[in-house]
C-alpha cells in the first residue's frame, strides 16, 4: 500500500483515479489545484500524479517547485505528448508521463511499476533536506555533486537525518557512529558538526541545529 497524491483540475479524472488506485489498496488524496496542498504535506506521499495543464500553477511549475524537497516518483497526466513537452517534464524532475485518455490498466501498471522500483532503490538511498544519501557507498550529494565529507561526518549526517527531529547528545551520536568500543572522545562530535555545517553552508543548507544543554538534531 502506498500514499498517492493526485492533482488534476478535472473532477471526473480525480474520481476515476481514486477509485482505481484504492482498489489496489493505495491511500489516495486528491486536489483540483496545487495550491490546496500544504508544502509540509508533500513528504507524506510515496508518489505524485500531476496534471500538466491546470489553471494557476501548472504541473510543470509545481514539479519544479517541489522536486528539490521530495524524493518520490512524479508522474504527469497529460494530453501534451510532443517530444519537447515530454523532454521538458523530465528535465524538471518527472519520472514518467501517462497520456490522456488512458486506460485504467495502463494507469495501474505504470504506478505499480514505479512504486516497486522505488521500494528497491530506497534500500540504498534516501533524500533529506535536498541532500541525497547513498547508503551503499556512504556518500552525500546535492544536485549530483558529491560533497567532500569525511567518513565520520557522513555517519553523523546519516544518523541525524534518519532520525530527523530527534535530539541526541554528543555521547549518543559518538556511540552510534563510532561504536561503543571506539577509542576517542565524544567531544570531538562538536568539531565534526562544526565542519559539517561549514561544508553544507557552501550549498546553502543548514540542517543541523544545536539544542543547548542537550545536543544536536536534524531539522
From TrEMBL:
The modification 4-aspartylphosphate is found at residue 51. Residues 3-115 form the Response regulatory domain. GO terms for biological process: regulation of DNA-templated transcription. Residues 123-219 bind DNA. Transmembrane segments: none annotated. Keywords: DNA-binding, Phosphoprotein, Transcription, Transcription regulation. One of its GO terms (molecular function) is transcription cis-regulatory region binding. The keyword Cell wall biogenesis/degradation does not apply. InterPro entries: CheY-like_superfamily, OmpR/PhoB-type_DNA-bd, Sig_transdc_resp-reg_receiver, WalR-like, WH-like_DNA-bd_sf. The keyword Cell membrane does not apply. Signal peptide: none annotated. One of its GO terms (cellular component) is protein-DNA complex. Pfam families: Response_reg, Trans_reg_C. Residues 123-219 form the OmpR/PhoB-type domain. May play the central regulatory role in sporulation. It may be an element of the effector pathway responsible for the activation of sporulation genes in response to nutritional stress. Spo0A may act in concert with spo0H (a sigma factor) to control the expression of some genes that are critical to the sporulation process. This is Stage 0 sporulation protein A homolog. It comes from Acetobacterium woodii (strain ATCC 29683 / DSM 1030 / JCM 2381 / KCTC 1655 / WB1).
Amino acid at each position: 500500500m502506498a500514499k498517492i497524491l493526485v492533482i488534476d483540475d478535472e473532477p471526473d479524472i480525480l474520481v476515476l483515479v481514486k477509485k482505481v488506485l484504492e482498489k489496489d489498496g493505495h491511500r489516495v488524496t486528491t486536489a483540483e489545484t496545487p495550491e490546496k496542498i500544504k508544502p509540509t504535506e508533500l513528504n507524506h506521499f510515496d508518489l505524485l500524479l500531476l496534471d500538466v495543464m491546470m489553471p494557476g500553477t501548472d504541473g510543470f511549475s509545481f514539479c519544479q517547485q517541489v522536486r528539490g524537497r521530495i524524493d518520490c516518483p512524479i508522474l504527469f497526466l497529460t494530453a501534451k505528448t510532443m517530444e519537447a513537452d515530454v523532454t521538458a517534464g523530465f528535465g524538471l524532475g518527472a519520472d514518467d508521463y501517462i497520456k490522456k485518455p488512458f486506460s485504467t490498466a495502463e494507469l495501474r501498471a505504470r504506478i505499480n511499476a514505479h512504486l516497486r522500483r522505488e521500494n528497491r532503490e530506497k534500500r540504498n538511498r534516501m533524500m533529506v533536506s535536498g541532500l541525497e544519501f547513498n547508503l551503499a557507498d556512504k556518500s552525500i550529494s546535492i544536485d549530483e555533486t558529491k560533497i567532500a565529507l569525511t567518513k565520520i561526518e557522513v555517519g553523523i549526517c546519516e544518523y541525524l537525518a534518519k532520525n530527523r527531529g530527534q535530539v541526541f547528545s554528543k555521547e549518543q551520536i559518538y556511540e552510534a557512529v563510532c561504536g561503543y568500543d571506539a577509542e576517542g572522545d565524544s567531544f570531538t562530535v562538536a568539531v565534526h558538526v562544526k565542519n559539517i555545517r561549514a561544508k553544507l553552508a557552501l550549498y546553502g543548507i543548514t540542517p543541523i541545529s544545536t539544542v543547548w544543554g542537550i545536543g544536536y538534531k536534524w531539522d
